[in-house]
Each structure stands twice: as C-alpha cells, then as structure tokens.
Design goal:
88% of the residues lie in helices and 0% in strands. It is an all-alpha fold and 152 residues long. It folds into two domains: 85 residues; 62 residues. The mean pLDDT is 81.
Length: 152
Amino acid sequence: MAVSEQLTKLADELTKLAARAQEAENRATAARGKAKADLEQDRDSARASAQAQAEKLHRKAEESRGNISAWWADVQKSWDAHAAELRDRVETKKAEHDVHVAQRRAENAEADAAFAIDFAYGAVVEAEYAVLDAVLARTEADELTQGAGATA
C-alpha cells in the first residue's frame, strides 16, 4: 500500500477515535443531570460497548499476531485484566449501602475514571506515534523497493 493510501487509512482511524472521544465527553457531561436509573442504564450500555470493543481488539490482535509487536499484545492483555477487575469491583460494590463505604466507592470510581482517561490519552499519543512510525516505515520500504528496481 502506498504511503498516501496508508496515511489516509490511519488518519481516518484517528478521526474515528476523536469522534468517539467527543461522544464520551458529551455523554459524561450529560450524565450530571440524569436520574439514577438513567445513569445505571447508560453505565450498563457503556460496559457492553467496552466489552464489545475489548473482544474486537482481542480478535484483531489474534489475527495480527506476528504483525504487531509483543509489547502491544502485552498491553492488550494488561488492559483486559484491568477492565475485568474494574467490572468485577463495580458488580461487587453494587450491594453495599453504608454511607462511608458508598463515599469511598464513589471516590475510587472517580479515581478509576480519571486513570482510564489518562490511560486513553496516553494511548492516543502512542497511536499518533505508531501512525507516524508506520508511515515512515512505509516510506522507507517504498524507497528501497524503488531503489532495488533501479538496480535490478
């Protein structure tokens, strides 16, 4: 695939990422005024969406095994474990009713959300680096291919 085609494809994926981040921001902002039942429904929907994305990422990693670095596979496994633990904690904590426990749970949930945002921000920065590195690698490969054709 030529550099311009690959860059366009990767730029399109970054555009999708930005749109999804905007959607998350809009939903978080809208959550402030919602009733508890609506919040629970939104949370459950977000959980289902996150689970579907995790499964898609896992399938993509399996299909790309050998084409992506082992580091990315480790990151994906680590994120899967973190997400599963977070979901388990949410389910476990639903039954707790003590005010102090509820306050602590809210603080922990807020800290988890802040860390998830920081992690996602880091992932976006890494994605930018990976896109630029991929374009550079394709440029170098195309140059070598053209040079090999000239000497053949």
